[in-house]
Every structure is written in C-alpha cells, then in structure tokens.
C-alpha cells in the first residue's frame, strides 16, 4: 500500500484522502495512518507547490551550481554538504558523479544576487576547490509537469 500511496501523492499531494482510499480499496483511516507513519519516518519529507514563476511577473533566477570539493578528514562529503545546505539561500544539494562533487540549486532575485552568494559564501568555504554556475533560462518540464505551453497554430485556414 505504501508504494501506491506514494505514487499518487507524488503527482498530487492535494488528493482527497477519501478518494485515495477508494482508489486503493482500503479504509480512509488506514491511508491517514500510513501517511502519518511515513511522515514520522521521514519517507515523506514535505508537501510543495510547483509554481510557474514566469507567469507571476515576479523576478526569480534559478541557478544550478556545480561544486568541486576536497573532503576534510573525518568530515567527508556529508559534513561539507551540511555546511552548504545550511545556507538559507540554498534550495537543494545533491552529491553527484562526474567532474564535480555537488550540485547546488539556488534561487535569487537577480543574476548578481546568485553570483554574490557563490563568490562570498560558497567559494570561500575551506573545502571548496571550484564552482561552475549554470543559470536556468527556461523551464520546459519540472517535477514531471510540463511548464511550456504548446505553440498555437497561427496559420490562416484557406478554404478553396
């Protein structure tokens, strides 16, 4: 039942629990208890709303910053990641494979704000060797949701 609940709420965390129970063929109380258990076990870590900021008129810049580090003795990657994710500006930190060690996701109001964070805070950490900043210019799909509107056919219909 856990996997089915997680599959449903990952796509729509606002699903009505009574409807979810009916779809799963179980009692609503069982669904509520299972959700509470998964929250307590930190399987479910939060509920979020996906917003298309381009449509709001509010300026927002998202950057993906690749970070190469030298893990400190007795600190490892986990301790370095903790130092990075404790900054309130940081939305996400991932340990990655490839030429860099971490992918850090930031949101700010301007490119300058992001650049200032990278140069003043991130790059100055002892274990950080280098960074590479990539700005997201347009989101086409995010968290499984298509963000781009399909192009409208602007051709004129010609009737013979």
Automatic annotation (TrEMBL):
Domain Transcription regulator AsnC/Lrp ligand binding: start-end pairs: 65-138
Stored InterPro entries: Dimeric_a/b-barrel (IPR011008), Tscrpt_reg_AsnC-like (IPR019888), Tscrpt_reg_AsnC/Lrp_C (IPR019887), WH-like_DNA-bd_sf (IPR036388), WH_DNA-bd_sf (IPR036390)
Membrane spanning stretches: none
Stored PANTHER family: LEUCINE-RESPONSIVE REGULATORY PROTEIN (PTHR30154), TRANSCRIPTIONAL REGULATOR AZLB (PTHR30154:SF34)
Annotated protein name in UniProt: Lrp/AsnC family transcriptional regulator
